[in-house]
From TrEMBL:
Topology class, membrane: Multi-pass membrane protein
UniProt source species: Alkalihalophilus pseudofirmus
Spans traversing the lipid bilayer: 12-37
Subunit structure: Homodimer.
Signal peptide: none
Superkingdom field: Bacteria
The protein, known as: Ascorbate-specific PTS system EIIC component
GO BP, one annotated term: phosphoenolpyruvate-dependent sugar phosphotransferase system
Pfam families for this protein: EIIC-GAT
Protein's cellular compartments: Cell membrane
Gene Ontology annotations for the cellular component aspect, listed alphabetically: plasma membrane
Amino acid sequence: IETKLSDGTNFIIYSIQMAGTFAAGVFVILSGVRLILGEIIPAFKGISEKLVPNSKPALDCPIVFPYAPNAVLVGFFSSFVGGIVS
């Protein structure tokens, strides 16, 4: 199995590479969410002031990603385990 999955790479090196890939992916997701929130909330606020005065912009769950990065990891692992079980 080790040869098929890691293409003959040492399991320690392969584990470090995969951990780095996963960490980079989570970082990209968190950075992207932070960037989009920084851009979209002011746009919603400008539109809402013209169309619906005194309204508040609201977004779904990705808004908490920058404030609770551990929740993102817990959610990922829970989703992964749930997918395997089902």
